[in-house]
Amino acid sequence: MNTYLIFALGMLSMFAIIAIIVIVVGIVMVIKQQKQINKLSRTVDDLDKRTSNEITNLSNEIYQNITNNINNLKKESEGYCDSRIDKLEKKLTEKN
């Protein structure tokens, strides 16, 4: 009977040791995953900020390009109209 008791206590202690090892390994894995999650979160935040800045910069650049194109077209059309008016004036003065 004493042998069965010692055997049972030995088995229970082995199960307890295995359970403690599994718990410790689980805690270590959770801590590692938590660190990875925090790192990924910082990476996502950084990417979000960079993307937002890039979108703002591109929007400003596009606006600037559109404004420049409009101003260039305005100058070209004014120049064209001025040249046509000058030609018309020249023709009118030649006839008189």
Describe it:
This protein is mostly helical. It is 98% helix and 0% strand. It has one helix and no strands. The chain is rod-shaped. The termini are far apart.
Radius of gyration: 41 Å
N-to-C series of helices and strands = H
Q: Overall mean pLDDT score?
A: 93
Terminal Cα span = 140 Å
Main beta sheet: none
**Helix-residue proportion:** over 70%
Low-confidence parts, pLDDT < 50 over ≥5 residues?
none
User: Beta-strand level of the residues, as a percent range?
Assistant: under 5%
- Sheet/helix structural class: mainly alpha
Shape: rod-shaped
Total number of helical segments? 1
How many DSSP-defined strands? 0
Short description:
The chain has 1 helix and no strands.
List the helices and strands and how they pair.
Blueprint: H1 2-95
Which features would summarize this protein structure in a list?
single chain, 96 residues, rod-shaped, mainly alpha, 0% strand
